Amino acid sequence: MRVLGVDPGLTRCGIGVVDGVAGRRLSMGAVGVIRTPAEAETAERLVLVERGMEEWLDTHRPEAVAVERVFSQHNVRTVMGTAQASAVAMLCAARRGLPVALHTPSEVKAAITGSGRADKAQVATMVTRLLRLDAPPKPADAADALALAICHLWRGPSQNRLQQAVAAQRLKGTTR
């Protein structure tokens, strides 16, 4: 399976492609960052993120997209930009009928390092080891995007089964 991981941001949107399945060797397809100029208007920056996402989707043809779930930060302006970039990534994937999964930062850290409290350096080190890279991807947003893709490859199938079971239970409850 090929997963596109997205670490959303308005200035730097980390993006990475990982191929593999749970329990097997993983390989990096590509990694990078979609950048927008800080001095540009928000609407223009979102168009640039959208164009970058579309280019990555066209080039790498993922089967799923994993996006970091936006969590509340102290800086409302930063969280708004992150949420807007996240929405653009989800919209681009949804337009193509691709499944979109949201993963929390602590969930990704726990999947990659074994600890939900790992720092960025620990995540980058494990991404480097898991994908057998010569050096950690830079900037950290790029490494985080790869970590999201890996997390989804490892946790996505079990989450899908859980969601299907919950949906089946709800359906049973409404047909009685």
Describe it.
- Keywords: Cytoplasm, DNA damage, DNA recombination, DNA repair, DNA-binding, Endonuclease, Hydrolase, Magnesium, Metal-binding, Nuclease.
- It catalyses: Endonucleolytic cleavage at a junction such as a reciprocal single-stranded crossover between two homologous DNA duplexes (Holliday junction).
- Its EC number is 3.1.21.10.
- Its cofactor is Mg(2+).
- It is a single chain.
- With 176 residues, the protein is α/β, with parallel strands linked by helices.
- It has one domain (2-175): 2-Layer Sandwich (Nucleotidyltransferase, domain 5).
- The protein contains 5 helices and 5 strands, in the order βββαβαβααα.
- Strands 3-2-1-4-5 form a 5-stranded mixed beta sheet.
- Helix 3 crosses helix 5 (140-175).
- The model has no long low-confidence stretch (mean pLDDT 91).
The largest pleated sheet is described as: 5 strands, mixed
Placed side by side, the strands forming the largest sheet appear as: 3-2-1-4-5
SSE topology string: EEEHEHEHHH
> The CATH topology, please?
Nucleotidyltransferase, domain 5
Strand content: 15-25%
Summing up helix and strand content along with how strands pair, one would put the structural category as alpha/beta
Question: What is the arithmetic mean of pLDDT?
Answer: 91
Radius of gyration: 16 Å
Shape: globular
Approximately how much helix is present in the residues?
A: 40-55%
CATH hierarchy, class = Alpha Beta
DSSP strand tally? 5
CATH superfamily: Ribonuclease H-like superfamily/Ribonuclease H
The parts where pLDDT drops under 50 for at least 5 residues are: none
CATH architectural group: 2-Layer Sandwich
The tally of domains stands at 1
So how many helices?
Answer: 5
Distance between the termini: 38 Å
Subcellular location: Cytoplasm
Organism: Streptomyces axinellae
Keywords: Cytoplasm, DNA damage, DNA recombination, DNA repair, DNA-binding, Endonuclease, Hydrolase, Magnesium, Metal-binding, Nuclease
Family: Belongs to the RuvC family.
